[in-house]
Amino acid sequence: MTRLTPFVLAALGAMAVPAAHALGQDPPAPRPSEAPAPPRTQAPPPLGVAQLQVDVVIERHRGDRLVGRLPYRLLPIAVESQESSGPTEVKTGIEVPIPPESGGGFRNVGTTINCRARQVRPNVYWLSLMLQSNGVYPAGGGSDAPAGDPGRPLLNSLNVNSGALLRDGQTLQFLSSTSPVNGEVTTVEVTLKVLK
Hints:
This protein is mostly beta strands. It has a domain at 58-171 and 179-184. It is 9% helix and 51% strand. The radius of gyration is 36 Å and the shape is elongated.
């Protein structure tokens, strides 16, 4: 019987692994300590759909005196997408007759608010607001109205088309506008809340 030297035995052992692989056998698995650890990534919190409460307050000031305050509440739904949800809208008002010498007919006097919402990050919402508000100054002027024809009321109007990023519980002034007729200042303030 022929004795194999340690050198020959080592060479035969080195050839055994490739030969086993060539025969379709899997090479031995690495030890657990040698396996690479999977990369750690923290997934962002899920977004989705959120029911919002949006409070809109229109105020009119003359100097330091508050002369009008109109609060509204809307309940838009915010979705996580490139497109905002469908609009939530409120319309209030009355039809005011227009004198025949001014064209006759009726004009709607009131407020229309169109609100859309979209969730852009966790707890951050893009709010789009379109607002139209019309009012009537009393006929004949007076201390609270600009001078005009005593027989014809004066109609004022306010149009807002704006958007902003808001967080849950945040209040933001969307608009501050001064009337060129009598210096009256109108502000539009919006508060956003997420309903749980």
